[in-house]
Amino acid sequence: MDTPVVAEGLEKRYGETVALSGVTLSVERGEVFALIGPNGAGKTTLVRALTGTTEPDAGTARVLEAEPTAVDRDRLGVLPQAFSPPGRLTARELLAYYAGLYAEHRDPEDVLADVGLADAGETWYEDLSGGQQRRVCVGTTLVNDPGVLFLDEPTTGIDPAGRRTVWRLIEALAEAGTTVFLTTHDMAEAERLADRVGLLAGGDLVARGTPEDLVAEHAGSSRLEIETTAEPSAFEDLAFPVAARGEEVIVRGVSPADIGAVVDYLDARDLEYSGLSWSEPDLEDVYLALADETELERTNRTDRTGETLAHTGETA
Hints:
Blueprint: E1 5-14, E2 17-27, E3 32-36, H1 43-50, E4 58-63, E5 76-79, H2 91-99, H3 108-114, H4 130-140, E6 148-152, H5 160-175, E7 179-183, H6 187-193, E8 196-201, E9 204-209, H7 211-218, E10 223-227, E11 242-245, E12 248-252, H8 259-268, E13 275-279, H9 283-312
Parallel strand pairs: 3-7, 3-8, 5-6, 6-7
Antiparallel strand pairs: 1-2, 1-4, 8-9, 10-12, 10-13, 11-12
């Protein structure tokens, strides 16, 4: 089978705003691809372009070997960021309604169980909690047993237990061969679920790869944070890179086995400290590093443009 999701050079503008700037990517069968990025980065626009609800200004997209507007909807599941089904239908009735839209569909009772709402089937949608409502919405995308599933921030508003139910469900779907494309602001979600992650910033796909590869390339080394009022110069003989941040000293490249040596260094010099915190880099560090870098570049471009306009007497 061909690659289920392919985008080549997708571009989209809304007036002067560039939502997508030549985005190219592909997602393989059974793969979970997580798209992360700041608000306004273009994530929802990309999902809409791939699902046929937004026409790009340039570039091409194919889903299940067809143009997005021509995809067999029986094979596609889409959960938009905003989705408001009728409030006076029960969770069971909603799933039965959406199941009835397809010639072949799953048993709504099974879907209710999958999303962890077997005991809430008779509750009106409007009386469910926000997290339960979101899980029902996830369920509506599963009744047709789709081959490709697009989920735009699927776990927003869901409590930790419900979130883990949805995570396990997504993992099971991918293991069974479903291709999953999701957007999220939850870095733990992306790190757990995704085979590959793409970071979209300013309409550009600025990085992509496995979570492990992105962390290794962009997140830096482990860090030991020391809460202390000691001057940074007091650490100049420490055999690790050191940086100061307020009343914290950050020591880089420290393994768990090295923490004792750092404590010995502090004690030998009577350096007082109120806390130690060790952490490994993760996907959130990647996000912060790349998103900040992209925002800084955009700000610099804007500043340069402003300077040029000022010199020429023009206005933006």
